[in-house]
């Protein structure tokens, strides 16, 4: 039997039960932010100074502070700005510094600048009704945006496609490969690059709008695994010549374009092209004026998958750049010249680099975030171009970082399982200059149990990190039922060395109903490196379930666990995992609640699904084994399926197909729809969702 490795961190509250306040389930869902530790609101360095700004607790006042002393100087109030500008800003959300005295306000509707010294300003732009994907370039005062499928700059159409299948300026590849938008300004604002996708061959997928009378079908484009995909290209619009040229994939029409960036001199665009099989990447250079292909800097291949998620990072004014790659098993930093020659591998970490944060003003150091040797952490490091690495953050936990404009100081804030929140300012030599905040744990006033992080050994020898929550009145002589909360899919990490170890507050409400709440990050989950994550290739669900069963084995070994009263709940990939455990490991869990589950990977979209499963015709056995429709006959116990009716990520066909299969088999189960909710049930209705989920578990796990 797998043995418990001593918890790494322990957070516990040991105050008298009777003196504590209780929070309701609704409060635990809707008030997690209010009950979270106080934080420094929107710390920003003021350019070209050693001063910094923060917001008041209501985000309606900007305050300026010095590095010495605790005195704050009020710089601006949002109500005063609204009076002068006749604007309607609710608060300073979306504010940034333009210079030592000027701020930019951008709430998504009105863009304005304000001088905090002269108390004057002006409205620069107002967004047009029905416009989306706003991307404002402050240096040139230009606003790019989309209306329906076309791209505009300040009222001028850059594309004029009548065919709605041609979509410009929006995210492509369904936000995979680190893509989060479709509009890219050059540094000067003279060039605008944008993604364009041709969705002509992608099937229309119907979603029902039940708010209309009669109900109306709303079609989305949804490319399912093995079917025809979108065809991408990159448009390059020259603001001065008002001409647009296009870059097309050099391979197949349905290759992927991602990680687009400009060189510092704006002469070239660098973009990664990935083939549809996602096992080959070319980092290509194109002329920014003509769109002409210039060269391939290098290629990467992998028999499982290639997944570039970060653009080439130009750390200086030269065209040398840093590339993030996990070609050696972990994301590391590689320095290249513009001929494509590898100058140096800058990091030799046996842990995951998460992201490049920024470069020091003197261009000597590049700061980056990484897990460090403990994968539940997010630490900050810096490296010079000789490859000398240095850990910057002093304490283990989950850190945020911001370097001052002169590079002399940096802001460091973090939380961990033992520290609710702590914010400091350091010199770049590592000396703490100022402690900004060390927050009290607000939950000390409530009945909140203990949380621990520990590890189990997986069947392959991997360390599997888990989070274990116990009730505030935990009694080791009693027997407790368990709720296993699971996600288990790629790119996600549920167990982190942060406040509450990454848990939701409703888990503590559930614990105080007499439950143990357990979560384990299985193989395939994020921040552990390619060998750990890629074992899921072509057979989703197999090793993930094996690891979850290692967790079950551990739970059943504990004298205070009632092994006959185990429940499991998860959403999205966690819904797939919940359903897989209920149907492929029947009898292990007495109750299961699966939200928004993938039930058959042939119904899921191409970009994500084919990376992990290949195409259905390439992996027939893997698709059949992972299809939960083929295991429906095995159901034991009480099972609730939940789905948002306009889910455009895991479309409702997944649940409908499984429910249909249960009906055909004559098997009773439960199903609950959330009308007009997408993939996640959000807003006030989320309290209804969690009440539905947790009450179902409590009522059926007796």
Features:
single chain, about 700 residues, alpha+beta, Rossmann fold, 5-stranded antiparallel sheet, 43 strands, about 35% strand, disordered N terminus
Give a structural overview.
The chain has 702 residues and is of the alpha+beta class. The chain has a domain of 291 residues: Rossmann fold, CATH 3.40.50.1820. The chain is built from eleven helices and 43 strands. The strands form ten sheets. The chain has a nine-stranded mixed beta sheet, sandwiched between helices. The longest helix is centred in the C-terminal third of the chain and has 16 residues. The radius of gyration is 26 Å and the shape is globular. 43% of the residues are buried. The N terminus is likely disordered.
């Amino acid at each position: 039997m797998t043995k418990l490795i001593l918890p790494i961190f322990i957070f516990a509250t040991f105050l008298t039960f009777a003196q504590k306040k209780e929070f309701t389930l609704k409060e635990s869902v809707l008030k997690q932010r209010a009950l979270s530790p106080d934080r420094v609101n929107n710390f920003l360095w003021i350019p070209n100074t050693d001063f910094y700004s923060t917001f008041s607790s209501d985000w309606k006042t900007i305050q300026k502070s010095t590095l010495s002393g605790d005195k704050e100087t009020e710089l601006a109030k949002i109500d005063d700005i609204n009076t002068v500008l006749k604007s309607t800003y609710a608060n300073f959300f979306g504010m940034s510094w333009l210079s030592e005295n000027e701020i930019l306000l951008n709430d998504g509707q009105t863009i304005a600048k304000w001088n905090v010294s002269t108390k004057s300003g002006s409205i620069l732009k107002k967004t047009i009704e029905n416009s989306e994907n706003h991307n404002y370039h402050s240096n040139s005062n230009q606003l790019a945006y989309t209306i329906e499928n076309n791209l505009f700059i300040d009222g001028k159409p850059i594309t004029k496609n009548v065919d709605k299948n041609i979509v410009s300026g929006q995210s492509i590849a369904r936000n995979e490969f680190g893509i989060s938008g479709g509009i890219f300004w050059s540094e000067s604002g003279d060039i605008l690059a944008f993604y364009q996708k041709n969705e002509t061959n992608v099937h229309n997928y119907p979603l029902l709008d039940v708010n209309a009378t009669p109900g109306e079908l709303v079609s989305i484009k949804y490319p399912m695994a093995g079917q025809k995909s979108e065809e991408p290209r990159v448009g390059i619009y020259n603001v001065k010549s008002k001409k647009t040229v296009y870059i097309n994939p050099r391979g197949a029409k349905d290759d992927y374009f991602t990680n687009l960036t400009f060189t510092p001199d704006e002469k070239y665009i660098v973009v990664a092209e990935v083939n549809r099989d996602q096992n080959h990447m070319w980092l290509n250079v194109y002329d920014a004026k003509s769109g002409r292909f210039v060269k391939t800097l290098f290629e990467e291949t992998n028999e499982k998958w290639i997944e570039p998620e970060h653009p080439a990072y130009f750390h200086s004014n030269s065209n040398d750049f840093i590339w993030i790659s996990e070609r050696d098993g972990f994301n590391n930093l590689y320095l290249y010249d513009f001929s494509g020659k590898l100058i140096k591998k800058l990091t030799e970490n046996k842990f995951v680099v998460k992201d490049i944060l920024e470069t020091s003003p003197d261009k000597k150091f590049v700061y980056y975030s990484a897990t460090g040797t403990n994968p539940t952490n997010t630490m900050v490091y810096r490296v010079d171009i000789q490859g000398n690495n240095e850990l910057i953050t002093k304490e283990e936990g989950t850190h945020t970082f911001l370097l001052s404009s002169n590079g002399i100081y940096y802001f460091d804030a973090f939380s961990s399982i033992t520290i609710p929140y702590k914010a400091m300012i350091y010199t770049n030599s590592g000396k703490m200059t100022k402690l900004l905040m060390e927050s009290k744990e607000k939950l000390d006033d409530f009945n909140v149990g203990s949380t621990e992080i520990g590890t189990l050994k997986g069947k392959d020898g991997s360390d599997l990190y888990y989070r274990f929550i116990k009730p505030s009145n935990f009694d080791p002589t009693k027997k407790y039922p368990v709720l296993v909360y699971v996600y288990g899919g790629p790119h996600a990490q549920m167990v982190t060395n942060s406040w509450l170890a990454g848990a939701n507050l409703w888990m503590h409400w559930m614990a105080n109903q007499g439950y143990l709440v357990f979560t384990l990050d299985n193989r395939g989950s994020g921040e552990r490196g390619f060998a750990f994550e890629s074992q899921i290739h072509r057979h989703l669900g197999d090793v993930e379930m094996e690891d979850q069963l290692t967790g079950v084995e551990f739970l059943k070994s504990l004298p205070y666990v009632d092994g006959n009263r185990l429940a499991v709940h998860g959403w999205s990939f966690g819904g797939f995992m919940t359903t897989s455990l209920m149907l492929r490991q029947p009898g292990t869990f007495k109750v299961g609640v699966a939200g928004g589950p993938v039930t058959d990977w042939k119904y899921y979209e191409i970009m994500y699904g084919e990376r992990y499963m290949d195409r259905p015709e390439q992996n027939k056995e893997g698709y059949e084994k992972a299809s939960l429709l083929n295991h429906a006959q095995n159901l034991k116990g009480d099972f609730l399926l939940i789905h948002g009716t306009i889910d455009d990520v895991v479309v409702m066909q997944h649940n409908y197909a499984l429910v249909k299969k249960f009906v055909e088999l004559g098997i009773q189960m439960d199903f609950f729809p959330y009308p007009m909710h997408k993939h996640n049930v959000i807003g006030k209705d989320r309290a209804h969702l969690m009440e539905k989920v947790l009450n179902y578990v409590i009522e059926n796990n007796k």
